[in-house]
Design brief:
mainly alpha
Length: 258
């Protein structure tokens, strides 16, 4: 008797989540890379005058501004984990064994996306703790958990995008190249590092539709002010839902085992 799709999904999802604990190096790099941004880049502007920070960054501590922004940018790399795992399974022949079973392609897709987003959340408590110890403002409220949920949603959205780019390829270089291609434009066209007031008019237009801007601003409301913007949250739900649906369709028609 074949397993139900939900049972298949849970089994594959469990494998995706546990794989990260089998590689200490992967676990360490997942945490250290965004930590470097927080420690070094966050400290680089610590000497800005307080009046300037309060006028443009709406906080007296640049690290408080950067922390939710960097965690938002990390959602891009969280998403890449799904495509890296997909390519690895193709090259090892594991995906071919899965696809000759009754398991549907969309189940494989959902397991990869959920697994990549979940594994990436390891960064969140570590960076919040380090940021807090370095003096970042963190309002501990229910809104903090809602913002973490938003990080998870955006990670699933980007995981879906990466998956679609790699559905027909087993090239191990492609996930990294795609991430490098996407990260810089998305990061610098969002308010992850700097407020929108610094941007030229054309960059502001891009920022207004950039999901990282919504996620970063939502994080600042939650962490600094202990508030929440439900409109931004719903927009991020729409972002994740759209690319999840599109990715499931692409997986059904385009996913290849090698």
């Amino acid at each position: 008797m074949s397993l139900r799709p939900i049972d298949q999904l849970l089994a594959l999802y469990y494998r995706e989540v546990t794989k990260v604990y089998l590689s200490v190096f992967t676990l360490v790099v997942t945490i250290v890379q965004p930590l470097i941004w927080i420690v070094f880049f966050g400290s680089s502007l610590s000497g800005l005058p307080t009046f300037f920070l309060e006028s443009y960054f709406h906080t007296n501590n640049y690290l408080s501004f950067l922390l939710p922004g960097e965690l938002s940018v990390s959602s891009i790399s969280m998403g890449m984990m799904a495509s890296m795992s997909l390519v690895q399974d193709k090259r090892l022949g594991y995906l071919k064994r899965i696809m000759v079973s009754p398991t549907r392609s969309y189940v494989v897709f959902l397991a990869k996306v959920l697994g990549g987003a979940t594994r990436g959340l390891i960064q969140v408590p570590v960076l919040l703790m380090v940021g807090y110890l370095m003096g970042a403002q963190i309002a501990f409220s229910a809104y903090l958990f809602l913002w973490v949920a938003a990080v998870f949603l955006v990670s699933m959205g980007f995981s879906s995008i990466y998956f679609m780019f790699n559905a027909t390829s087993a090239d191990w270089q492609r996930p990294g190249l795609i991430m490098n291609l996407m990260t810089m434009p998305l990061m610098f066209s969002s308010t992850a590092l700097f407020p929108k007031e610094f941007f030229p008019w054309w960059l502001r237009l891009i920022s207004d539709v950039n999901p990282l801007t919504y996620l970063a601003e939502l994080g600042r409301l939650a962490l600094i002010q202990g508030a929440f913007d439900w409109t931004s949250f719903i927009a991020l739900v729409g972002f994740a839902a759209f690319f999840l649906a599109l990715g499931a369709v692409v997986a059904e028609y385009k996913l290849t085992p090698e």
